[in-house]
Structures are given as C-alpha cells and as structure tokens.
Amino acid sequence: MTPAINESRLLYLFEAVQCGTVRAAADRLDIAPSAVSRQIALLEAELALPLIERHKRGVHLTQAGRLLMEYYREQRAHQEDLLAKLQEVRGLRRGHIRLAVGEGFISDLMGPPLQFFCKRYPDITLTLDLAGTNEVMRLVAEDDADIGLVYNPPAEPKIVSRAQMRQPVHAIVAPDSPLVERCAATGGLKLDALYDVPLALMHGAYGTRQLMALAEQSEKYRLTPAVATNSISVLKHFVRAGLGATFLPAFAVSQEIEAGELRALPIDHPILERAEAHLVTRAGRRLSGAANRLLTHLESKMEAFGAPD
C-alpha cells in the first residue's frame, strides 16, 4: 500500500531546510526544536524513508527529501496561482509581489519605473531582496521570488526570460582618469589597458565577475583585484575615491554618470560586449495579476530593457 503524505508536516521539513537547522526553524515557527524534530521524524516514519541528514553545519536533504521539497514547492505555487485567479475574479487591484534583484538594477528600478507603479497601485505591496546572480536564479526557480532582475544569467531550464537587452560591461572610472582620453582616441578600451590599474571586483557569484572570469580566460590573463566585495555601492565608492576602476554595465551607474561623478568606457571584447540584462520568472509559473502588471511595467519603463533614461 502506498503511504500517504501528511502535508501539514511538510512545513516543518521545509523550514528546517530553508533555515539550515532545526533550531533556527523552531525559532521561526516559535515552537520548541523537539517539536520540529518530532514532526520530521513522523513524516519519515510514514514514508519509511530518511528525508534529512544532520551535519555540523546543519541539515541536508536526502534524495527522497529533495523530491518531497520539490512537491511541496509546486503545491505552494499552485495554491498561489489559485489565489491569484480568485483575486482576478474579484477584480481587486491589491496583492503582494516578491522581487529578487541584482544590486546593479537598483538605481534604475527605484527611479521612475517603481515610483510610477507604486503611485498607480498603492495597495500592491512589495518584498525586494538583493542577491547575486546565482541566488536570484535560485529564489525564482524555487518560487521564493515571483520576478527576478539578473545580469547575464546562466542557462537554466526552470527559468524563462520575459525580457532581455544587450547591456555590455563597461570600465567604470573617475572623470579625470587617463583612460578617458585613451578611450576617446581609440573608440574603446582593450582589456589589457586595465591590467596595471587597481581594480575593485564583485565576488564570483555575481554576473559581472563571472563575465570577467570568462574574458580573463580568453585573454590568458588573471585580474587580481585590490578589493573584492559583494556590494556595487562599494565599487562605486572605490572609483569615486580615485582608488582605481571597476567593471559594470552602464545602467548600473546611470545616476552617477548624469551627475558627472563617474564615466563608463566601452571595452572592446566580444564576451563583455554580449552581456545581457534579464527579467525572469519560473518556467510554467502563472503570475498573479499584480505581478503581471509589474512585469509588463518594468519591461517597458526600465532603462536596462531599452526604455529611455
């Protein structure tokens, strides 16, 4: 006889995996850790399969646990889809949208695009989480975010791009950098023009750093950053302080360029020229009416996707 799944117990397994430990899950659920462990143990007994493995750094799913979590996420997404349909039947203009966003999109997003949307739909609330490329993809794939804004993402069958636009990587320098004159004379910098310039670069989980790594491999040269960070704000401050240069798409520094604080110089390199900005959702996911409105709005209003600045 096929064992039944007690779906009420799936929440405890989900929280333990999301939080990393049983204790952290118990804190989030405001119950005792033993209660979380007991519910997971009962679920394992019902299915006659181990679902998690405990390690020093927390819990990890077994193969059976991964299958169960995939089922749970799908069920949760189906429920959200149903609620979205019911909301549309009621004709409501309210709702909640979860965004996962690469930091480079923030200046573009928080300008006119989001200002206009929030004024037009004041009863729609947003959760906005900043994340690197890999994390944005994971959040969208696992339905922890409805919409993602990501720079040059890897191919992923669970993710579909709803809008994309060529957004090359530029060298970001101070206005008085000697590279400005060199670029003006040649029409674009070669990557080797920056080999002797102190650089600030993002960590490897971010799209710009992954692109730079590919360009380095093609040039058979390794860039050694003076500063490595997970913050685009740090990159901007590094350049504004006259400490060196960095690499970003121009839309990520549009406000600073307009203010005359930074310059974005084109780089003559095929890998860096082909980079793209993407607006993504999970493949097969039916978004709520509110999320669909925001998706269409961002595609038409954001500079990253071709709207005039």
From TrEMBL:
InterPro entries: HTH-type_LysR_regulators, LysR_HTH_N, LysR_subst-bd, WH-like_DNA-bd_sf, WH_DNA-bd_sf. One of its GO terms (cellular component) is cytosol. GO terms for molecular function: DNA binding; DNA-binding transcription factor activity. Pfam families: HTH_1 (PF00126), LysR_substrate (PF03466). SUPFAM superfamilies: Periplasmic binding protein-like II (SSF53850), Winged helix' DNA-binding domain (SSF46785). PANTHER family: HTH-TYPE TRANSCRIPTIONAL REGULATOR YBHD, NITROGEN ASSIMILATION TRANSCRIPTIONAL ACTIVATOR-RELATED. Belongs to the LysR transcriptional regulatory family. This is LysR family transcriptional regulator. It comes from Pandoraea eparura.
